[in-house]
Amino acid sequence: MRRSGINPKDPFFLILSSFSKFEVLIEDIVGKTNTVVEGWTTKIDDKLNQVSSIAIVQKKSAIAKVASTLLSKAEQKNLNPSLVP
Asked: What does the alpha-carbon distance between residue 7 and residue 24 come to, in Å, rounded to a whole number?
């Protein structure tokens, strides 16, 4: 630096040097943030798929229960004609 005439203790030089280091840190943070966001996106997608599958199973179960109840009532009415108005 002495050949260039720049004094490494010059406040302006120190500020520019700090900005350069800061820029590198920001670029690193952006890369890490993207990685974190991608991980979150994958986890959220997995959880949504899991919840969707559970909801479908619960709906099928509820429909089967209602259908069974209706069939039982229909069979009771067929066996007991006096229950039919």
From this structure: 23
What is the value of pTM for the model shown? 0.52
**Distances in whole angstroms, Cα of residue 55 to Cα of each of 49, 64, 67, 69:** 10, 14, 18, 21
Q: CA 41 to CA 35: how far, in whole Å?
A: 10
Report whether 1 contacts 8 (CB < 8 A): yes
CA 81 to chain CA mean position, Å: 56
- In whole angstroms, what is the distance from residue 85 CA to residue 73 CA? 14
Residues 20-69 have pLDDT tens digits of: 899 889 988 988 998 999 999 999 999 999 999 999 999 999 999 999 99
